[in-house]
Design brief:
Elements (H helix, E strand, L loop, with lengths): L15 E4 L19 H6 E7 L5 E6 L4 E5 L14 E6 L8 E6 L4 E6 L4 E5 L14 E7 L8 E6 L3 E6 L4 E5 L14 E6 L9 E6 L3 E6 L4 E5 L14 E6 L8 E6 L3 E6 L4 E5 L14 E7 L6 E5 L6 E6 L4 E7 L2 E8 L5 H7 L10 E2 L8 H8 L8 E5 L2 E5 L1 H7 L1 H6 L7 E4 L4 H13 L1 E4 L1 H14 L2 H14 L5 H10 L3 H13 L1 H4 L3 H4 L3 H13 L6
Helix pairs in contact: 6-7, 7-8, 8-10, 9-10
């Protein structure tokens, strides 16, 4: 689900927790519609989406992989085959053998979901062809949408008020539905009742993230650029104008800024950069841009949320509310919050952005498809995590810097090629290790149990050395991610040096761009003063080529 959200945690010397997939507990009871469910039913919920013009419809999946719906059923949006409202959860049997990967909804409402197999199903309001089934008849039951998608695996879906976007595993975007302002991206303003690929500027691009405002569409490509199309009357496309855009157009004002995520409100846009900064543009009558005033902005404007980095942004096409979460776990909200106009990011007591929309958005909907983790049952992975460094069950000890780390031979052999060979005929129950430090080697062994690392960026450099030595490519990526998350002016040069040393080219480019963006402060640090001569020479040459020294 939102596992792919960018993580930015820590600074120099701070411990950083990086993992490529994680779920968290969510209190679905904060959405009023869930008061219709019993406590027993709530405990079974594993995924949920609250939608509708008043937040009065809900779809959820249970621990048994059953799908239930509840609420007013406007336009048949519950998919039950009728338009009868229901105060009791009803099972959606037509999707009984499907597992939902992602889901979005429109204003009608209409619903678009993708299964874990990459198939697309739609139902609900269809006056503008937003279901993509070739008709304009409301869909009372889920319909499998295969036109132009039959050989594609869909990995993300997004809905505007009356149009739909999907993203495929090969980075292509398909769109359909209402097109009065060009939001389908076809080059015309004719409605489109079946999926067609959005091309133009996106023809040879690999898209990694999509979002929809009320009548506009957004795509982030792998190079960090943002492409926009559709309605622009409030400047929500960020192009410096208010003219609609019938085909994708790059947001030129973000030149040199690498965007990782985009989120759209009703008529405003938020983006999150790889350095954990947020930019906003578009409608601002409720302060939803977080700029301290209520003036619309047609160019990207920075949103200042304390001095912490942002790891998550949240907005929803049905609301004028914005939210963000920092690496320190603080959740901020701004815009329309329970009738108040909050023009600057306001620190809340919440632990997740979802709660902002449950308690303060109008209507009280979910801005994304929620995933809820059970807190009682231990999975195999969770059980293994608990056994790391447990002397009671271990059959192997590593002696590093005079300290023991306890492990299990069979797990190490299963998880790591190096141990598969080194432990094959080894009868010893103690292995002495002198090549790496205790924190680094302990982090490596813990990674084999947990798939995650928890280190300062400086220690992650040592782990990067180990990962390179043992040819653990996934661990290498996690180390690079942790170093990126912890970069600051003081350690930027040392991290750049490490990236060069270990031939981590993506990390090297990131560190170099960070140094250029903070050049004045970086050049005054002790790290810069003590920089290796050859590295300094190459740095100055490369910086000159990108125009860092121009007046």
């Amino acid at each position: 689900m939102e596992e792919e959200l960018p993580l930015f945690c820590g600074g120099s010397g701070k411990s950083v927790h990086a993992t490529l997939s994680s779920l968290k507990m969510l209190d679905v009871g904060k959405w009023p519609i869930f008061s219709l469910c019993s406590e027993e039913e709530l405990q079974l919920i594993r995924q949920a989406c609250v939608f509708g013009s008043a937040g009065n419809e809900v779809l959820y999946t249970t621990v048994n992989d059953e799908i239930f719906v509840l609420g007013t059923n406007c336009s048949g949006c519950l998919g039950l085959g009728d338009v009868q409202s229901t105060l009791e959860p009803r099972r959606l049997d037509s999707l009984s053998d499907k597992k939902i990967a992602c889901l979005s909804y429109g204003s009608g409402p209409h619903v678009v979901l993708a299964t874990t197999e990459g198939e697309v199903f739609t139902w609900g309001h269809n006056a503008y062809g937003q279901l993509g089934n070739g008709t304009i008849n409301h869909g009372l039951v889920p319909s499998h949408i295969s036109t132009n998608l039959s050989n594609k695996q869909v990995i993300e879906v997004a809905c505007g008020s009356y149009h739909s976007l999907v993203l495929t595993s090969d980075g292509e975007v398909f769109a359909w539905g209402y097109n009065n302002s060009g939001q389908v991206g076809s080059g015309s303003t004719a409605n489109q009742a079946i999926p067609r690929r959005v091309t133009g500027c996106l023809q040879n691009k690999v898209v990694v993230n999509i979002a929809c405002g009320q009548m506009c569409s957004m795509a982030v490509v792998d190079a960090g650029e943002v492409y926009v199309w559709g309605y622009n009357g409030n400047g929500q496309l960020g192009l410096g104008s208010s003219g609609n855009q019938p085909t994708p157009c790059r947001v030129a004002a973000l030149q040199g800024i690498r965007v990782q995520r985009v989120a759209c409100g009703y008529a405003h846009t938020l983006v999150l950069t790889d350095e954990g900064q947020v930019y906003a543009w578009g409608a601002n009558s409720y302060g939803q841009l977080g700029t301290g005033n209520k003036s619309n902005q047609s160019y990207p404007s920075p949103v200042v949320v304390e001095k912490d980095r942002i790891i998550e942004i949240a907005a929803c096409h049905s609301a004028h509310t914005s939210a963000a979460k920092t690496q320190g776990g603080h959740v901020y909200m701004w815009g329309q919050c329970r009738g108040q106009s909050v023009v600057l990011p306001h620190l809340t007591h919440f632990s997740c952005t979802d709660d902002v929309f449950a308690c303060f958005a109008t209507p009280a909907v979910t801005w994304r498809f929620l995933s809820v983790e059970p807190d009682d049952h231990l999975t195999v992975a969770e059980s293994l995590k608990r056994e790391f460094d447990n002397p009671d069950t271990a059959d192997l000890k590593f002696l590093v810097d005079g300290k023991y780390i306890y492990a299990h031979k069979v797990l190490l052999k299963i998880r790591c090629e190096h141990f598969r060979s080194s432990l094959e005929d080894n009868e010893d129950d103690i292995v002495e290790m002198s090549e790496f430090s205790y924190p680094v080697y302990r982090a490596f062994l813990e990674y084999l149990y947990t798939d995650s690392i928890s280190l300062s960026p400086e220690e992650a450099v040592g782990l990067l050395d180990l990962a390179t030595f043992y040819r653990e490519n996934r661990l290498k990526k996690l180390c690079q991610q942790t170093i990126k998350q912890g970069i600051c002016e003081e350690n930027a040069i040392s991290l750049l040096s490490a990236a060069v040393k270990y031939d981590a080219q993506d990390l090297e480019e990131f560190c170099f761009r960070f140094c250029i963006n903070h050049l004045t402060v970086v050049t005054q640090t002790s790290g810069f003063a003590e920089m290796d001569h050859d590295l300094l020479k190459n740095f100055i040459s490369k910086a000159s080529r990108v125009g860092a020294f121009k007046n």
